[in-house]
Structure formats: structure tokens, C-alpha cells
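I'll show a record.
***
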Amino acid sequence: MSADLQQPNLQDRNLRERNQQPRNPQQRNLQERNLLDNRVVSAVVRTRWYPMVFQVPVAAAFGLVAYQLISGPATAHDNAGTALMWVLWWPLVPVTFLLFGRFWCTVCPFATLSDLVQKLVGVNRPVPRFLKVYGIWIIDASFIAITWADHVWGIVGSPWGSGVLLLLLTTAVIISGAFFQRRTFCRYLCFLGGLSGNYARAGMVQLRANPDICKTCTSRAACYNGTESTPACPLFTFPRTMDSMANCNLCASCIKSCPHDAIAITVRPPAKELWLVGRAHIEESFLAMAIMGIVLIQNVTMLTVWQDLLDQVAATTGITSYPIIFTLAFVVAVTLPVGVLLLASRLAAPASRESVRQNFARFGYALIPLDVAAHVAHNLFHLLAEGKAVIFTVGGLFGTTAEGSSAIAGTGTIQVLQYSLLAAGVALSVFTARRIAVNRHGATPRARTVAAPMVATVVLFGVVNAVLFALPMAHRM
């Protein structure tokens, strides 16, 4: 047999040996914890029915929610769509980001709709450079705008308003799918995608490719471009150079298309990616701080004393317009965390020997664990204090009636859980801030000096959230 015919077999054998015997301890440790080594997990993600088996029931539930919002009862208290969307789904979805990264983006009905539109009428134009450069800023702006609109026009409290929001998002998804490649909307325009991307960085699931195997691969980046039977990566992420879970939705397309089994899914400590971040992006740190402000204003406006504050503003200033008062409060709430981190970044600049912008971009990631904790803790109130509303309203669709309290747990239990989450978020953010400083400056006094203002920022917002959670909160429904 000629050498030319033997060479491919030799190369494949070498690739298999590299995959079985990683060269360094880090790769060996990674492979030993590879979830794909489990036959059940591997079989599930490699089957052609994955992720369709999850997409179908989610799409059916979404259809029910949309139908109820548009044509169901006009009051949120009686509408199953409102209960399913804002009392059940919205409190639980941030938890999925922490546990499974952006997996929700795989089963999201908007993503499924985008794929369908693209197959039927898509012209597959490249993503405009404008979106690649400014997409995250568009996401930041849309997330802030939707939150503002909710309070000014009562989107959450109005089934029809929530339905209109879904229709607007559906229209944007259809337009994006018809014109642009892959899931352009999900990657560069979706406000929930931006939120999930930030939170997924603190998530406990990691997908990575073995660089030793990838550098000898001759499959022309099948993991990125797809094959005849496997679609391309929907979020434009190349596994070989991937260092973040911000744009991976665990769709398993790369796993199915990789000819050498070079990709692993592992479980990692929460927030580990945040202190190992390579290139820090200021727009992502800005979003982290804006989310902190949004959580704060959400807490304030849900307090039973909010109406008293409105009355005091009216009596003091003569301003009675709710949109004006809320807009002012909203601007203050969103810009306050940004301003505090800017101040901390300026205080850290002399010791770090880096600019305020660089410090802001890098240490903004440290606030993400506290973001997640405060967000989940806030929504935990709605889930546990109003959770039975889901049972009542969905049961009403089948002719059953139920009365009584909608609470699943008492106020004391809810507050214990909220403070536990908040304490975990503060601890993880403090640890992340210190690790970022140590990774940058070593275990030196300089690192402690750089981290000190950032740690103070974390503690400050932890205390503010703790005070707000101690006050009585109004129900959503």
C-alpha cells in the first residue's frame, strides 16, 4: 500500500490518540469531566431529534400564551397568558441561564421561527458590519427601552400590552430571518439574548474544543459552517477560538458535525469565566451595570410605599405626571450603578496603571453574579407569592375554578430565600473582583488596592438590595 493511502489513516489514528490522551493536565482534567462521556447525554445531544424534542412543547406553550394574551381575559389577574409569562417563565428563565447557559435560546420559539423563515424565504445576506460593531449597544438600548415602556404603559400588567410586545418581537424576528444569515436577531438584536449572554458567563456549563485536535483538522471548519446534514453554528461562534459561553446556546450542531469528537461539555464553578475573561468589552460591562439599575428600579416601584413617594413628589414639585416622574427615577436608577463603577474605576486607575475605561470594562463583569442573584431574588417574590395564579388561571381554561391565596410560600420564607441568594451573589462578585485583580496583577498588594474599590461597589449594591427586600412588596397580579 502506498504512503499516500496510508497517511490519512495514520492522521486519523493520531487524532484519536490525542483525543484520548490530552497533552497537559488541564486538558486531561477537562476530558475526565466531559459530560459527553456519559452515553445517555451523548446519545441525546447527537440525535437528530435534539433540540427539536424541546422546541416543540415550548412552541406549543408559547402559542397558548400568545393566544391568551391577545384574545383571553382583559385583566392580568384572570389571564393564563400573563400568569404563564410573567409569574412562571420570567422568574425561572434567569435560573436556566445560570445552570445551562443560553440553552433557552435553543428552544426559544423566536429562534425556531427565525430558522423556519430562513428556510422558506431567506436570502441569507451577511450580517451588516453595523450590527457586528454596535449590536450589543442596540441590545442594551432595547432592554432599557422595554423596561421603561413596561412601567409607563403597563405592559406586564396588561395582557394586550404583553401580546403587542410579542407581536413586535415576532415581526422583528421574521424580518431578520428573511434577510440575514443564521440567527442574526438572536445574536445581535434580541434583548433577552443580551441578558442571557451576560448571565451565561456566570453559568455552570462550558463547551470547548480541544485546540490540539482542531489545529490539525481538515474538515474546513465543519463545526462552524455545518455539513449537509447538520446546520451551521446559529450564533456565529467558532468552537476552536471560543473562550466564552456568551454566544453558545448548546444546540449541539458543532458536536454533531465535528469529525474528530474534539468538543467537550463540562461543568465548571459558577462565575469562573468572569475572572478569566480575555478581552473585556465595555458595552457588556455597561449592560451589567444597567441591569443592576433596572433591578433596583423594579424593586422600588413594586414597593407598597411607591405610591406614597409619588404623592410626596407631587406635593413637593407639583408634578403629577407618572411618566415624567418614573422617567426621572428610571434615569437615576440606571445611571447610578454606571456612575459608581466609573468612580471605582477611577480610584483603581493609579494602582492598576490602566485607564478608567479599561478598569470599567474589566471589572463590570464582576457585578454579573450579583446581577443574577438580585434579579432572581426579586422575581422569586412573584413566583412564590403569586405562583398559584398559574394553577388558577390555567385551570380556568379547562373549566375548573379555585379561590384563595395565590401564595406558595409565606413572606418570611421568601425573604430568607431572597437574602440567601443575595448573600451568595455578593460573595461570588467579591471573589470575582479579587480574582480579576490577581489575574491581572498577581497576588500582590497592588492587586488588593485595585480590587478594593470594586469590592466596595459590590457591597454597596448588595446592601441597597437587602434594604429593598426588607420592605413590603406589591403583587404583580
